[in-house]
Write a structure and sequence with these properties.
heterodimer; A: alpha+beta; Double Stranded RNA Binding Domain; 8-stranded antiparallel beta sheet; 5-stranded antiparallel beta sheet; elongated; B: mainly alpha; globular
Amino acid sequence: MGDEKNKGIVEKIWDFFASVKFAIIIFSLISVTSIVGTILEQGAERSKNMKLLGRLFGESVAPALYNVFNSLGFMDMYHSWWFNTLLVLFAVNIIICSLDRLPRIIRIIREPMRPASGDQILKSPIRRETVIKAKPDIAKKLVEDSLKSTGFRFTELKEGKGYLFYSQKGAFSRLGIYLTHLSILFILAGAIIGASFGFKGFLPVPEGQSASLLMENRGHFSELEEQERHAIFNAVEEAGNASGAASRLNMSEDLLKAKMQKYGILPLGFSIRCDDFSVDFYEGSDMPRDFKSRLTVIDNGKEVMKKTIEVNDPMTYKGITFYQSSYGPVPDAKGEFIFRITPQGGISEIKQLHFGDSFAIPGTMITGTIRDFSPALSFDHDGKPFTYTEMMNNPAVMISFLENGKEKYSGWILRRYPATWMLPDGHNVEFMDLWGAQYTGLQVRKDPGVWIVYFGCFAMATGLFVAFFMSHRRIWVSVMEDKNTTKVIIGANTNKNRAGFERKLDRMITLLSSHTKEEK
Amino acid sequence: MNSSTLFGISTVTYILAMMLYITYIAFRNSPLGMTATAVTVTGFAAQTAAILIRWSEAYSQWVIFSPESTFIISILRSAPLKNLYESLVFFVWCLMLGYLIIEFIYKNRSFGAFATPVAGVALAFINLSGISSEIEPLMPALQSNWLLVHVMMSFIAYATFALSFSTGLMYLILKTEKRNEPSYIFWTTTLGIFISIMLFMGIDFFTFKVMVRPDQFIKSYLFKTSLLNQSLSIKLISWFIVSAIIAMVWWSGLLLKRIIEKFSIPADILDEITYKSIAIGFPIFTLGGLIFGAIWANQAWGTYWSWDPKETWSLITWFVYAFYLHSRTIRGWRGKKVAIVAVVGFGVVMFTYLGVNLLLSGLHSYGEMR
């Protein structure tokens, strides 16, 4: 008795999870909460969303509302436990709905075709008839050919004065929907694997330097924690390993490792060196055309891999992928200015210099000295130079030239404008690069689940194609002698795209009757 | 002729076609209907030419900036699907193509009166909103072969959803009988809101673009003259006007029903077109919009899904149409209930496409309005 009652509850729960009502509730909850998540900026600073709430509902209620939303996890809702629970319930709903309906569908698919009586054929949803002016044996051949040409593999039955053919096609297409459902589970599973066994972080690498320690993108830490996080990061980076850092910070190695875990400080296990970083701009504007980083992977002291990465063209080593994501100036960097100096009619020479250095133009008595530098030079209305951004958008050096110790000329040389490289008396000073003053910002990602997600995407595309563009078609054709002619009756049904199937049958009928005319 | 002249011609012809189709359904004059079709075909030809010319203009620009790219890469990178302006133009092109196909298959011109206004609104939006129609250089994140397939398939899907919106709305108009019926109230309200938005955008356009600051972009003045005006009284009057328009449509809706009824379009054909449009659009949207978008995002940023507003709203769109399909097949819903879902679905599509860019922010800076 207790057993039955128990079963009743289980069944009830099962039915609820399999119900469309439950699916609608989950769909709506995911949608509505997601909408809130697109309005409140996710993972943003407090002030941003406070301002937004103030604009929407008034300044007075904004702090209270903020606290309500914050305690409900809406400020980082896609990582909150309840949102992920909703996604799990979505998966459960899909599983149970599919399991609930699958046995019936499989039965339909496995069911062999049965011959149909003349009456049954006449009662089919789709019917066609024609008369062939020939003996049944000839007509039979014609019907066989036309069935073959439409791709039906048929069964043949001798019946009284004639024949019955029947066939079905595309029964498996009924599974398309279930493949689509299964694919969603693959995608979710891949996402879970990625989130549990992968990581995502940011790695700034200055030109000419290397980095091997990653700071993961992790949610919110208090200001104090943030300070400790950076202190630990710097200590580990400087010491090169955890034990060295632990002694520097006067804490046990175990504690340090626990804190590294907490703050998402992750040694890559190898290091990445940035050999060169460059930005190309569209001519005459500050709109970037291309970012490029020339990277070298150093594992166990050996250079194992070299690649130039760009946006849309990342590099992968040991399952960890490096994406070109940003760049910026390195504060207080002592970069190297690289010039190609070509005296008039002479041979080019490449020189690497620092700020304040002097150089000679070969074969002349002229020397130049780097007096000033601007990462982004522009001129105001009065022709006075100024720097418009700290980003290296239009690097320029001011060089003064002396001949025999006497001031000859001076001026700005701009890297992006070759016209400024030419000196008044024909010598050319090309400003090739300022090396070591910028860092490349790499997005670092390890995601062991991505191939499962991709597999899921592939399955989804296949499943949708099968579900929408293929159908389960059944056909019965009776070929009966009728005096000196032969009567052909077709009965058919399909689970989808009836109009398309009917067009196909019409073509078949026309083909059969046209053949009769030829015979005549 | 350059591309902008041709775009101008196509805009004018489409708006003319819209007026012809509407007059045609009001008077049922068949030469008028044939003229409407001829004008639409002309507009479509002009637009096709305009798109191709713009493509070649962008190509010659790309070759100057990036002489090192191969021929095929240059062709791909200069395809006219790179910014909001070009995507809207492509959307209208797909919509008109889809409409012409339906007119050809079903031999019925009255859908034109419902499909061309959607194109008209999109074209008016292009012209009124001050979206830049300049051919802009391509930023690094967009220099990917995925751009073309992702954007193209998304907009083909959007166009099929727009068609399902038109036929769904027509179905509702035909099938509702009483003023107190929920589905009657639903469609009249939808149409009322549609008309109000058009009206207020028109007022915005005249006050801001013509009178004051011609180079302002829509985001800075959208509804500032009406619903979002600083003065409380104008705000209230505007909301009152919206309610008045809705009430008017509600009051006169049965008249519209009688006009459309004269065409004797079987309602089940409308239901069928709505379903077929979605059945074509949904797989294309899933593959091109969501899956290819995810693969591209993974290649460019290292995450296939980051819950940014555009992605989230695409997912909501997907949910709504998945719901449409399930309610038809599992629950066997037909008729008014599913037609409402189709109409709501296109509202969500519009928000995903324009609302997110106008009102929210995110990674898809490509469609960003500055």
